[in-house]
Specification:
mainly alpha
């Protein structure tokens, strides 16, 4: 490692894990709410699928707001 400290080499790892956990958390949370709605209303799996899609979209938007906007 030419001139880099160990902390510099791993500096982006925390951001990567934060983005990954935000995406997984959004999908799991809103998808879980959709699953609960499906169980309560005794429907198929429509709310689960809708929850997964909405969870992914909202998580992507949160990641964009947090890390994607350049030049603040």
């Amino acid at each position: 490692m030419s001139g880099l400290r160990q902390s510099d080499a791993w500096s982006g790892m925390g951001i990567g894990w934060a983005i990954t956990s935000t995406l997984i958390g959004g999908i799991a949370t809103v998808g879980g709410l959709g699953y609960l709605l499906d169980r309560l209303l005794d429907t198929g799996s429509g709310f689960t699928a809708l929850g997964i899609v909405l969870g992914a979209a909202s998580a992507i938007y949160i990641v964009y707001l947090r890390y994607g906007r350049g030049g603040e």
